[in-house]
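W.,

You were right to be curious about this one. When I first looked at the sequence I had no strong expectations either way, so I just let the prediction run and decided to look at it fresh. Below is the sequence, 383 residues in total, followed by the output.
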Amino acid sequence: MHVSDYELFAVPPRWLLLRLETSDGLVGWGEPIVQGRLETVRAAVEELVDVYLLGEDPLRTEEHWRTMYQGGYFRGGPILMSALAGIDQALWDIKGRHYGAPVHELLGGHVRDRVMVHQWIGGEDPAEIAEEAIKRRNQGYRALKLNATAEFAPLEPPAGVETARKRVATVREAVGDDLHLGIDFHGRVSKPMAMRLVEALEPYEPMFVDQPVLPEHTEKLGSIADRTTVPIATGERFYSRYDFKPLLVDDAVSVLQPDVSHVGGITELRKLMTMAEAFDVAVIPHCPLSPIAFAANLQAVFTSHNAVMQEQDLSLHDPSESTGLAYLEDPDTFTFEDGYVERPTGPGLGIDVDEEYVREQSRLDVNWYNPLWYHDDGRVAEW
């Protein structure tokens, strides 16, 4: 058996899906994507598959990962690691289907029967965000994540901090203390303002503060962590265990949030989780992506004690309203109850992609770029 063919599909809203096929007809799916850089990643996937993978035995997942990573003198970064991630997911999907087992069983077996998921809630007006939070709570979610602020100046007056505080305070008051609330700074806050904002939000006991500063200023995370009881999280813009290593050694974070479609796939995510466990650091994988990436995350999560929760943006509570779950032959594949998702038991990633629907959606124009925000004086702001 060898890898014989592949196809890439750009589909709404902003996803790139990889279909990998073997000589005996097995098909595996993966999601290699950097949102807003879809065509760039497409080229990287084509190069990696054409140069390293066609004609090779798909079951040698570790060897292929190392060859595609180490085979190039220049390595790492968002484009190459995201391309590698989608290929790795598809190879694991094929491997699981070959052996008739879910990937998590091939990784050592499951350590839990279900995992909590969190849902993102948006909006700008505090009352509207609180209303959305109540709605999600009533739909069964036990954990929510919201943005702390929109664009945020490098030096904000007290009113800017107060606006963010009021947003979080209103939501906490609306849903009570039984729900987890993750607060995402999204890298929008400067180093001088990050500590002030964390201190303002501390009374509302966030589950974590995510990306309090940009990855370019990682050295600041330790000092923020030392001055607050709020768990500090980061990770969606880190691309390998080597990027995460300094955070663990410096005791700078309490929660890692790697993305299986950016961090080199299931192979690297599993290793990163094990590395984090040695430092007593929790893992909550980032995943605002399709059910393929979500399923790939779950395979690693169910093998890891310290993977305590999983992000999703698929409206798991009601598959009939979910645009993302429509890409599956059975939108009810993921069993959601009481804020948790049950362990998948199907072979490979545990999902069956509706290939006809994927091909239909790929005929649409998919050309998404993240919005450009500006400060009042015309300077580009962090989105």
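Here's what jumped out at me. The CA atoms of residues 14 and 137 lie 27 Å apart. And, maybe more interesting for your project: The chain has a mean pLDDT of 96.

Coffee later to discuss?

I.
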